[in-house]
Write a structure and sequence with these properties.
Number of helices: 12
Radius of gyration: 37 Å
Strand order of the largest sheet: 6-5-4-3-7
Largest sheet: 5 strands, antiparallel
Structural class: alpha+beta
Helix content: 55-70%
Shape: elongated
Number of strands: 10
Order of helices and strands: HHHHEEHHHHEEEEHEEHEEHH
Distance between the termini: 133 Å
Length: 367
Amino acid sequence: MFLSSIRSAATVLVFILFFYMIRGGLEWALHRSPLRQVTVLHRDVDAIIRRMGLFIDVAIWGVVVLPTLLLLWGVYDNMEEATKGLLGFGINMGSQRISVGLVIVSAGILYGSYLMSLILQKLLMDEVLIRRQVVKGVRLAIGRLLHYVLIFIGFLLALFALGFEFTKLTIMLSALGVGIGFGLQSIVHNFVSGLILLFEQPVRVGDIIELGGNWAEIKSIGLRATTVQTYDEADVIIPNADLLTNQVTNWTLSNRQVRLIIQVGVAYGSDVPLVIETLMACANANERVYKTRPPQVLFLSFGESSLDFELRVWVLADDRIQIKSELHQEIDRSFREAKIEIAFPQRDLHVRSVDESVTLPPPETKG
């Protein structure tokens, strides 16, 4: 047992060094070989090395290291018997036997399809579609569809590798279809809505939308849900179907300019031309107000307690709240300097009839 333990430890150490050599070879191949000229591989080289290294490590442990350890401990007489014995170990499920070897092959197929989908996604989106000037939303939609198709194909091949028959798979898919029809309607609805959002692009990543009275920026559009971030930096997950069925205001669909309206009421008797001139000066003094689309001041109405004006300016949607605050401060300061009174609600009370005892002084008493 002592000798077997020493030999096992030495074997494990040797294979660990071998694993490091394999990772070093992958790094050389992707950093210094002609493969480094592939933009996608060069950009994601660390992730590719990590995932391929994991795949190779698991395969070597299952096919080489464990059989070698069983051979060192005397469980089997030679390497061939150890490998067959380990890979052939399994359980019976009806007429089908699920062995370790089949599980390893199936897992390898599934993981290989996952790696292939990631590489093809990057290659298609960043090398092919972007050169053809395909818009970002369509690129994302094609990439996601390719990813799910390859994963589904890998899943089917993994089931075939485990020994499942085609007729059984047909029954499973039929049951899955019934499950989708009854219990997964919302998921399928959101999935289809996600494809529509990615292809038609009524909203895009980076757009500023108003939904339910709240302003938010779209951070990501998935096939099931869309993530938006409010101005409080709260991430909100919105099902894609809600973005299609509900009314959504997209402030940046065609451009990022929005009109900012500031309502101001001044007291009756104020100098109207001076009010208009002061509001225009406040707008022109702000550097972030667009000058290509000149500010506008409108005298809208005679209110109950004020003369009602509106200052309308064009600003960048991202700076809307900050510019609104700056203009409020500048208007308040300028009105104070110009002695323009900002109105507040006032009421006049007219007394028509009052009891005489309230208004007349009491009669003088004679002493």
